[in-house]
Amino acid sequence: MKKIIAANWKMYKTPSEAKKTLKELISLLPADIFNQKEVLIFPSPVLLQAVAEETKGTQIAYGTQNFYPAEEGAFTGETGIAQMRDFGCQYALVGHSERRHILNESEEMLQQKMHAALQEKITPVLCIGETLEERKSGQLEEVLSRQLASALQDDKDADNFLVAYEPVWAIGTGEVAGEQEILQAHAFVRNWLVKNCKNGQEIPILYGGSVKSENSKQILALDNVNGVLVGGASLNATIFSKIALS
Ligand code: PGA
Fold first, then answer.
1. pLDDT in tens, 167-189
2. Phi and psi at residue 5, in whole multiples of 5°?
3. For a pocket test of ligand 1, which of 9, 230, 235 has the largest count of ligand atoms closer than 8 A to its C-beta?
4. Model's pTM, two decimal places?
């Protein structure tokens, strides 16, 4: 399985900044890197045109950070999954902790998003993870299994999705989870997928939360870590290229 190196640009960059970053990134990545790694970019929707233009003819794929789970309709301010597909998005983040906790996205909405993305043949990246309080009170496995079961309710037989384990307390805090914490959570997710899904052994599981060029190599070497989802450290082409090359 190729390791997946994904950049979550969140609400950063203008179109010209996005183009500059991608030009730099493309110049820093040797062509043979794509034999071992898949490189994905999740930009804000207003950058999609710039990202589509700049990645044309390269092996860098991109996806949307968000979408509304309907083909079209009266949903003011939203962008539909079919529109994202038209823009060339091959992937979509679903359930990122900032959407769960800041935008109050419900588990029911996330389940609809998983289903809509799969129907539209866009590969969803289902983000799951516990808060610090949940971890401290021993609810890690309960939270992860609840988030998986609820989002995959109608799609357990799907084979075209990814899971990203991102402990909420490690996102944007500089506090990366320890090796044992990552190993334990990823083993739990792998077992859950094997037990409950048709292709559980094949579903890539990414780790996210304060991944940097200094720790990416160790994290990527851990059992059941099939890639990383990088926020802050993905905004700079030099740093992100080091992560991709690690
Ligand atoms: P971070 O964000 O790398 O800045 O912690 C990760 C994410 O939000 O996916």
1. 999 998 888 889 999 999 999 99
2. -115, 105
3. 230
4. 0.97
